[in-house]
User: Which sequence fits this backbone?
């Protein structure tokens, strides 16, 4: 085979190599291994400009160790590689020992003068458009100058062919760096968003919840979050995860009530190809995806009995099998479960396994309904107004006393979620800076009409006057004690009547009064209320 035919054959094979992949180091090594065989090349290196230091560095090589490759860094204009990059012109050196600019940074060339078979060096530029962005340098034993020039010509062709791969590689690197930066930013935003300080609630019930999750977050204990729909169970689960040692690992959410038992089993544990109709490929489950992190099982009370058995095994042994597979998969993930059902009643009814309930019930967090922490409603309203004003370019910030009274008295059966939706609706429909009753949902407006009709004809001033007169008559009061004693007597009377109205059930009486149960218990004790 003559030289021309050899070069055509090499170019054809290099084109196939470059078309077979985009990983720069792999493509370069495969191509240079071919040239090593065909042209007796001993070592080769691809250098590119480091954008952070503006230096040439070796990104891929053949015949160099990792340590030798790390030494190959050059300033622009420094050494043979730096000069080739600066001038954009190739350099062919028959004997590196006789070339003053050959620096031998990698310390792999024979630079002893007068050698009978000296090392030759060929360095060609790599262009991206009109700009040189790197070099390709090869080291081989000297044969004759004609062969060196022919090798240099072939390397120029190779440099032109690999330029596209380099461009794609750099684009991928930039996109990857940008993606990693965005991911880090999103992770930081999530951590900031789900810090305990950002959970809105200063009522005694919410302070109890915050105290519990602050202690639980640093452990790996399984948590069970109980509360009505719309209370913010997922928010609490995220706060636990993002304040735990697992915060850098994934948080995987599964709604156990949204899928059929068969689909949910595959979703939780994964499946093998052909395990059932439609299983076209292997798939990992949510437990595997959450390995090292946290899995949040929402609506866990709706689990099928068969799946309850498998979940119990995962909680006990931290292992399971994919659907259609016999191999055991081990995982290390924290389980946080949530439900709006009373699991104790479900256990008594036989629809929920007792052993699974106790496995989930390591730490239980009871989220109070919004009607039991009405003192948090103004803060929540301010938070939602700020959020949806920003999203919708509005400036709603005024609320009349009547509207605020309605919002405070409304029972909010949908809890915080219903309040959020009501505020979002009001902001979207608003045309001014004031949140009026007309902007609120129909059920809230109907409640306002009903409560307005229930107000007695007698004025509040008259009622307070009569209660104060009654209290003063019943108590021996002294100057400086009137206010405290009268208010205490009014509270005592109101709590007694509320307990009588609710059949002595304190939880119902607290909801009726619109105060927290702990607050009611404290007042009953302090005021010595008798039924």
Assistant:
């Amino acid at each position: 085979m003559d030289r021309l035919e050899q070069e055509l054959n090499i170019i054809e094979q290099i084109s196939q190599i470059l078309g077979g992949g985009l990983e720069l180091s792999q493509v370069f090594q495969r191509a240079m291994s071919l040239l090593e065989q065909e042209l007796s090349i001993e070592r080769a290196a691809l250098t590119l400009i480091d954008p952070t230091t503006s230096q040439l560095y070796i990104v891929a090589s053949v015949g160099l160790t990792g340590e030798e490759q790390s030494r190959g860094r050059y300033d622009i204009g420094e050494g043979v590689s730096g000069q080739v990059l600066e001038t954009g012109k190739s350099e062919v050196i028959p004997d590196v020992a006789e070339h003053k600019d050959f620096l031998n940074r990698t310390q792999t060339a024979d630079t002893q003068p007068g050698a009978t078979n000296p090392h030759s060096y060929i360095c060609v530029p790599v262009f991206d458009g009109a700009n040189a962005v790197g070099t390709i340098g090869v080291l081989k034993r000297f044969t004759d100058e004609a062969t060196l020039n022919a090798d240099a010509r072939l390397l120029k062709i190779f440099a032109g062919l690999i330029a596209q791969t380099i461009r794609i590689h750099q684009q991928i690197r930039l996109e990857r760096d940008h993606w990693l930066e965005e991911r880090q930013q999103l992770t930081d935003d999530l951590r900031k968003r789900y810090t305990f300080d950002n959970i809105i609630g200063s009522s005694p019930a919410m302070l109890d919840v915050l105290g519990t999750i602050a202690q639980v977050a640093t452990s790996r204990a399984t948590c069970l979050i109980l509360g009505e729909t719309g209370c913010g169970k997922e928010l609490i689960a995220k706060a636990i995860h993002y304040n735990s040692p697992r915060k850098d690992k994934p948080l995987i959410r599964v709604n156990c009530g949204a899928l059929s038992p068969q689909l949910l089993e595959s979703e939780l544990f994964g499946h093998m190809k052909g395990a059932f109709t439609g299983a076209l490929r292997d798939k990992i489950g949510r437990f595997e995806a959450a390995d090292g992190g946290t899995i949040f099982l929402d609506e866990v009370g709706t689990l099928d009995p068969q799946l309850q058995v498998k979940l119990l095994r995962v909680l006990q042994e931290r292992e399971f099998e994919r659907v259609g597979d016999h191999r055991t998969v081990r995982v290390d993930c924290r389980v946080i479960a949530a439900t709006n059902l009373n699991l104790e009643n479900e256990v008594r009814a036989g629809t929920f396994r007792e052993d699974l309930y106790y496995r989930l019930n390591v730490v239980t967090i009871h989220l109070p309904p919004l009607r039991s922490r009405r003192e948090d409603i103004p803060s929540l309203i301010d938070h939602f107004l700020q959020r949806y004003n920003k999203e919708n370019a509005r400036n709603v910030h005024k609320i009349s006393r009547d509207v605020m009274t309605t919002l405070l008295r409304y029972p909010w059966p949908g809890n915080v979620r219903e309040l959020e939706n009501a505020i979002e609706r009001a902001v979207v429909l608003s045309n001014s800076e004031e949140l009026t009753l007309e902007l609120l949902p129909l059920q809230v407006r109907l409640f306002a009409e009903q409560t307005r009709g229930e107000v007695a004809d007698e004025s509040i001033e008259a009622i307070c006057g009569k209660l104060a007169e009654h209290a003063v008559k019943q108590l021996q009061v002294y100057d400086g004690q009137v206010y405290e004693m009268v208010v205490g007597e009014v509270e005592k009377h109101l709590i007694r009547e509320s307990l009588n109205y609710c059949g002595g059930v304190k939880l119902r009486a607290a909801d009726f009064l619109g105060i927290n149960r702990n607050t009611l218990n404290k007042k009953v004790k302090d005021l010595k209320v008798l039924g």
Summary: Residues 24 and 195 are 42 Å apart (CA to CA).
